[in-house]
Design a protein that fits this description.
nine-stranded mixed beta sheet
Length: 314
């Protein structure tokens, strides 16, 4: 639900950004093992590379000091590191910072750093644009450009100037994470593995409208928190807000969630933006209670900030 802003600040043209070679950043340790094997390097080299990529603030091959010059040359001739700084930053009076990143194919994405007393959260994007076309989301009006690679997702954290202050990650930026499930799961593996960033899964929440093709895989293959973008428990009202309700009805999402135990460590929450005269009546509250009965969960009530061209009001 991030606001969409184009990279044409001060009437500057968008820069073309293309990968010319395959990148190492965003590969899992098993994929790095395949890389080093293909180049005739020892298997343990993969662990060395992973440590440099995900645990240290390197910016060049030369800094990988425990790799021989010969091995660094072999790898650098065939692969880019794949690390890229943000192109722009906008800061609000409360300290929130919106970062703009270039991705492959001349696309641009946002991530938002949100400091709040002892907590600091980064809201990351998983796609450039979005297919879901939710009525309350400016990104949906942008349309869909491309899925992000795992490296482009993880790079939003890796290149963040405030990286060392982060306490939480939320996949609530541009795009629908479960419409890009392979890259999202790979990025989560990098964030939570001992050879990667080593984050606890309880520090990470992934938000979805309920794309069933990715939801079940996420629940079974990850231990991170889940957030469902709900906004109405009344089918016709949710359909008016979220056209993808037709493809993935909320009823099926709830039935799937009820098959799993959410009482220990892992958490499921439901996001509910309040729209004046649309989903804010006692009847809507009653429908929400009925829908979520029996699920150990949280409901996150969210104020709506109006977007251009939308009749919705908070």
């Amino acid at each position: 639900m991030l606001s969409y802003y184009k990279y044409k600040l001060n009437n500057r043209k968008q820069e073309v950004f293309l990968h010319t070679m395959d990148t190492l950043f965003g590969k899992t340790v098993s994929e790095l093992e395949e890389v080093v094997a293909s180049q005739g390097l020892p298997k343990y080299t993969a662990g060395q590379i992973a440590s440099w990529l995900y645990k240290k603030n390197i910016t060049s091959w030369a800094e990988m000091s425990d790799l021989s010059l010969k091995n660094r040359t072999i790898l650098s001739d065939r692969y880019e590191l794949g690390l890229f700084p943000p192109r722009e930053v906008q800061e609000s009076v409360d300290g929130t910072k919106k970062y703009l990143y270039a991705t492959s194919g001349s696309n641009f994405i946002e991530s938002v750093y949100i400091p709040d007393k002892e907590r600091a959260t980064l809201c990351v994007s998983s796609q450039a644009g979005c297919k879901m076309n939710c009525a309350f989301c400016m990104t949906g009006k942008q349309g869909f450009q491309a899925n992000l690679s795992a490296g482009e997702i993880v790079n939003q954290v890796r290149s963040l100037p405030e990286r060392d202050h982060l306490t939480n990650l939320v996949y609530m930026g541009m795009g629908e994470p479960f419409d890009n499930i392979e890259a999202v799961l790979k990025s989560l593996e990098i964030f939570t593995s001992p050879w990667g960033f080593g984050y606890s899964p309880t520090r990470i929440t992934v938000s979805t409208i309920g794309v069933m093709t990715g939801l079940k895989r996420f629940i079974e293959e990850s231990r991170c928190h889940l957030a469902i973008s709900l906004h109405s428990a009344v089918e016709k009202d949710r359909l008016s807000l979220m056209p993808m309700e037709k493809a993935w009805p909320l009823k099926g999402v709830i039935e799937l969630i009820k098959r799993y135990d959410w009482r220990h460590q892992r958490r499921v929450s439901f996001e509910y933006i309040l729209f004046q005269g649309v989903n804010d009546t006692p009847e809507h509250a009653g429908a929400l209670v009925k829908l979520l009965n029996g699920i150990a969960c949280r409901v996150n009530l969210i104020s709506f900030h109006m977007i251009p061209g939308s009749p919705l009001q908070g």
